[in-house]
Amino acid sequence: MRSREVRTVRILCVCVLVLCLIGLGTVVFGKTETSGKEVEQPSSKEMVLNLENDTEGSRIPAGYRENMIRLAIIRDGQTVFAIEKGPSENQEDFMEWYLTEPYETRQLVNVSDLYDFLDHYASWSCLGQVENVDFQESGLVVEETFSDTGTVRLIVGQTDEEGNYYVKADYSGNVYIVEKEQLETMTSLEPKDFMMGIANLVYLTTVKQLQMTTEKTSASFDIETDDNNRQTYTLDGRVLEEASFKELYGKIIEILINGEAEEKEIEMEEPVLSLCFKRNSGSLEDVVIRYFPYDRSHYLIEKNGHAEFLAEKKQVDELIEEIDRFCGK
After folding, report:
1. CA atoms within 13 Å, Cβ hemisphere of 309
2. What is the pLDDT of residue 55?
3. CA atoms within 13 A on the CB side of 113
4. Residue 115, by phi and psi: left (phi above 0), alpha (psi -120 to 50) or beta?
5. Fewer CB within 10 Å, N side or C side of the chain?
6. Contact yes or no for 211/289 (Cβ under 8 A)
7. 225 vs 329: CA distance, rounded Å
8. In angstroms, rounded to a whole number, what is the distance separating the alpha carbons of residues 210 and 208?
């Protein structure tokens, strides 16, 4: 069992890594061109952050933001968006936010501004409470779960004569009026806007062996980690320089998700790149990531048997060249 101090060092290192990676950006799906120049449109997350959050006005209380562990949008009985705080896939005894719907696999959430974002949901701004309304459910529901008080459901109803929405809190039965733009913004969340978007995000401190396969290379790196979190890297019995191996590993985790795959069936052909991360802890799952030809600009990413996302072909090809060069020394 590692000491609390070592775990603290690991968490601090991971936080620094994640902060650096956030600078790489999130998933890149599309931009709008205006007068020949690309103009990035605000994400659905940014649009919520741009809403006025008048703390002095009327509110719909849901819970304490510090205790929020899940947010979901449900349309006609189907969960179209959900983020949830749960056990980390990359650290023991650590909790992280993941996008759990609508994808097959959990995706790590970019937590930049996440807590400011959640403030809008823990206590909704509204125009006020109303009485004697013949409330009619629209099929749209916002579910919020808190670690101390459980799950609340904010049920969206019909609009009034001004186009604003009636919203009923299930825990009290009270009905409120929520301004049209605010309601539609808060319930139109795009999952891609919340993803960290790093295809090969496996923390090096959790890896005991890394196998890499390209058309030209088949290599297996052994990694030993001591109780002080110091690591030794070997290839074919040869001890590698720490700086050079970490530089290579940094290039591996620089690969970004570049969009969602429309066709997710993989044709019977060999992957151009395979990465197998074997973990040094029984509580963490091994990770196998493979890249398959998809179209002229992208490779299909398959992670532990699930293929949902794309990576830019040019970026992956550059990584393959770097792996071949490094292993051919």
Report:
1. 28
2. 63
3. 15
4. alpha
5. N
6. no
7. 24
8. 7
Q: What is the pLDDT of residue 10?
A: 42
Environment class of residue 226 by beta-carbon count within 10 Å: exposed (0-12), middle (13-18) or buried (19+)? exposed
* In the chain, where the domains are located: 4-25+198-327, 39-194
Q: So what's the pLDDT on residue 17?
A: 46
SS3 205: helix
Residues of the chain with pLDDT under 50: 1-26, 30-35
Contact predicate 136/158, CB 8 Å:
yes
Q: Which two tokens stand for residue 143?
A: 């579910």
Distance, in Å, from the CA atom of 60 to the CA atom of 178, rounded to the nearest integer, reads: 9
What whole-number distance in Å separates Cα of residue 319 and Cα of residue 248? 9
3-class SS of residue 316:
helix
pTM: 0.84
Closest CA to 210 of 122, 296, 286, 145: 286
**Torsional class of 259: left (φ above 0), alpha (ψ -120 to 50), beta (otherwise):** left
pLDDT value for 329: 62
Residue 39's pLDDT is: 67
Retrieve residue 255's tokens: 């690969």
Q: How far apart, in Å, are the Cα atoms of 257 and each of 121, 231, 276, 326?
A: 28, 28, 18, 24
Helix (H, G, I), strand (E, B) or coil at 65: helix
Which amino acid is residue 8, in one-letter code? T
pLDDT single digits (tens) 192-250: 999 999 999 999 999 999 999 999 999 999 999 998 889 999 999 899 999 999 999 99
The tokens describing 325, both together, are 């060069």
- Residue 268: which residues within 8 A CB-CB, separation 6 or more? none
